[in-house]
Amino acid sequence: MTAIVPESRSVTPAPPPYEGAARPGADVPARPAARAARGYARACAARSSVELRAFFRNKQSLVFTLLFPVILLVVFGAIFEGKVEGTDTDFRQVFMAGVIAAGVMSTAFSGLAINVAIERDSGTIRRLALTPMPKSAYFVGKLVRVVVTTVLETVLLIGIAVAAFGLPLPQTAERWSTLVWCLALGTAACALAGTAYSALIPNSRSAAAVVTPVFMVLQFISGVFYPFDKLPLWMQNTAALFPVKWLAQGFRSVFLPDSFTVVEPAGSWELGRIALVLALWAVGGLIATGLTFGWRGPRVR
Amino acid sequence: MPSALTEHPVSVRGLSKRYGGVQAVSDISLDIVRGEVFALLGPNGAGKTTTVDILTGVQRRTGGDVRVLGRDPAEDPREWRARIGVVPQTTGAYSDLTVKEVVAHFAAMYPAPLPVGEVLERVGLGSFHSRQATELSGGQQRRLDVAVGVVGDPELIFLDEPTTGLDPVARREAWELVRWFADRGRTTVLTTHYLDEAEQLAQRAAVVVGGRLVACGPPASLGGRDRTPATVTFRRGGALAGVALPPLPPDTEVAASGPDTVSLRTPTPSQVLGLLLPWAAAAGVCELADLRVHRPTLEDVYLSLIDRESRENAA
To answer: pLDDT (tens digit, 9 = 90+) per residue, A135-164?
Structure first.
């Protein structure tokens, strides 16, 4: 087939080449860097606002992601009683520190993995890739979604635990700072693992089914519902490969007396190791996300 | 540095795309002129969407050269994306957002978008702006797709079957939108199954069959349509029965001349009528019964192109 080149045409005069700054209503001529920065900020704000609206309007994500840990806290908080063997600490308080870790995993891992899988399946990701949206703005939106929902989840859980079950708030600045960095690192680890894990979800219908077992099993083997030192050793060792065990341990160090360390595996809170494992999960999740996340292709509908 | 490859909004030379062992697009070459509406026609699976996907940077080509607004779509630069608008054949489900929120969200990605309210009016969703996007009917969702695709006020618009699923009124509204962009000097590439749509909107159309471009040109002359003879038919009853036809121009062919119907194939139907009418009047017939002049429609040309192509492939 030869080239088909029309010889002449006399319809509409050719428009001027694209000049965003010259059109009415567009930005007044500004330095390109400033304009690009404003465009980037606008894209991030648009993504973040859509993420939050969608999360809080969607009953499924509200109940499944945000309220499920609250229900666990209320139900098991009312069931559990008695001291942890060898300590003077109520198991209920141990459980509450653990359920905060479960809350982080729920919003940052489960919620995000399901959300990304649905957006891949529904065509949202593919559609966004057809716009000039900076690719990173999508992830900024996810970050805002995860940070807002995880902080809200944590505040809800701590609030209920303190108000209804007498969990003492941390008394020292050091413990508050441990709470903050555990929350930040745990959120990063779970969220990045979540975006990577979403690559294993074939479609939106199966999303909850592929994500929830991981969420539940990790809670059981990480000492959320049962004292960690009473779990079989192989289970403890398995759990130590994943972030929830370390996150729960970090939150125990925030809320439980230091005397509780006698039943911790290392006899101490191991804050350095907690930070290390969570940071490794964050880095690993980031790399895996970079390798698996696609804007188009056979898995992106 | 204008050259043959950069002066047209879309320049394609020898474009090919293979998936595994399947040749989806073979050696397509075309130029799309600034300001025109260009229609890509062809049966399902002919390679129209693959071609549009390559032009919009969604798929990679396996051969040939492509320039869209002077850039290679495979590079997918951001400032280039801001200048094209795409309405894909299948698109996103925007759950938990209202119609207006969806369009405003996409508008925020562009440097100089159209006002959201204006776009909603133009696609006919003005009164549905606060409706949840997932509660729209199929046709309304298609309009939302169009709104999302054009809200950035693109210089070059790709519409992949934009009116599929629309009712006739909504289709006319979509046409108005295409004309509005064309009036503003924008270029539109349209794939469609509706030949009337191509005829109404497009200055030029290309027919793609089996991944090959088999015809390209203005709808009025596509595939030699302007050179195909017209057919003049009428019923020969009453006083005309048994009267011999008058002498006709030499290039007119009597396709059928029975006792009931006369059918003439001619490149000059006006001349033929000029001879037939006095002939009938002389026999006392002032009104030829069932007189028709049929010129080949775009659909006739299109179907014969596809038929010819599939027979050639079979041979």
So the answer is: 999 999 999 999 999 999 999 999 999 999
